[in-house]
Model the fold of this input.
Amino acid sequence: GPLVLDFLTWLVRLAREREVSRLLFLSREGHLLVEAFHRLKVAAPAWTGEIDGVYFLASRQACGLAALRVRGSLATLLDCSYNGTLGDLLVARLGNRAKPVLESRLGGVVMHEHVFLPEMHEAVADRLAPAHDALEAFARSARALYREYWDETVGDTRSMLVDIGYAGTIQ
Done:
């Protein structure tokens, strides 16, 4: 409790200094923090002022897919430790909807190949190259949906992201 309260009071001070009116508590750990922030607002409304706190859905999968723009950006999705099939890796990094799109381009056999990351980083990137245009189209669609979500949740409000995920990975 005291640690969470100290963190939240620090956030409010920082938000005031930066003239931020909305705190975006990122997925997972953010759920506990936004609940605690709402309790702080009830307990100290004069101190927290007009600063609002919302739970903002973000994941490595959603953000990573939306961030895919050019061929080199795929590398960021492969910069991890992984041991399993290529298909399972793609589901983990890009979501269930990406798998049939990629499977139609790459073929089922390729999707069942066993891969090891980071050791096979280049080989996996090469395997995905024939599907890159499909990935870009899929990413464009995901990006548009995520922008819609951003506009609905944040709009033009001056905001600050709050994340205590492991090593900044939004886990």
The mean pLDDT is 87. The radius of gyration is 20 Å. The CA atoms of residues 44 and 104 lie 56 Å apart.
